[in-house]
Amino acid sequence: MPANLITEESTAITPQMLPLIDLTQEEIDRIVATVPGGVGNIQDIYGLSPLQDGILFHHLLASRGDPYLLVSQMAFAERGLLDRYLGAVQQVVDRHDILRTAFVWEGLSSPARWCGGVRRTGERGRAG
């Protein structure tokens, strides 16, 4: 796996910084424009895996809803339980890149995914 060339100090992303996907500068700029916070919230951009290609295919094929989206509702007896739950969820999201990943395909020569940098609730950009 090549080293990640996008650093916390990066103010722009160029094709040379993305060895795992072949995108034009225009396509990269299109992706960056969809990310809240722009470049500062992008950890990496790369192509979809075969499994992710299939997930995207089923998403696009679905006429109603999304076969991979599950909705549930939870209730907590007190605020402290909610806070502990949210803290645990945030730790899992911080630890696993895939939970900070989004697919993009519109206006691109091939589908891509961008991984967001670790963000803490209430903060913008990457955490140290």
Q: Give the amount of beta strand, in percent.
A: 5-15%
Identify low-pLDDT runs: 119-128
Give the integer mean of the pLDDT values: 89
Biggest sheet statistics? 3 strands, antiparallel
* CA-based shape: globular
State the helical fraction.
25-40%
What strand order characterises the main sheet? 1-3-2
Q: What class do helices, strands and sheet pairing give?
A: alpha+beta
The radius of gyration is: 17 Å
State the end-to-end CA separation: 23 Å
What is the element string, with H for helices and E for strands? HEHHEE
- Count of discrete alpha- or pi-helical segments spanning 4 or more residues: 3
Number of strands: 3
Structure description:
This protein is of the alpha+beta class and 128 residues long. It is built from three helices and three strands, in the order αβααββ. A three-stranded antiparallel beta sheet has the order 1-3-2, with no helix packed on it. β2 and β3 (112-116) form a beta hairpin. The longest helix has 17 residues, at 79-95. Mean pLDDT is 89; it is low at 119-128.
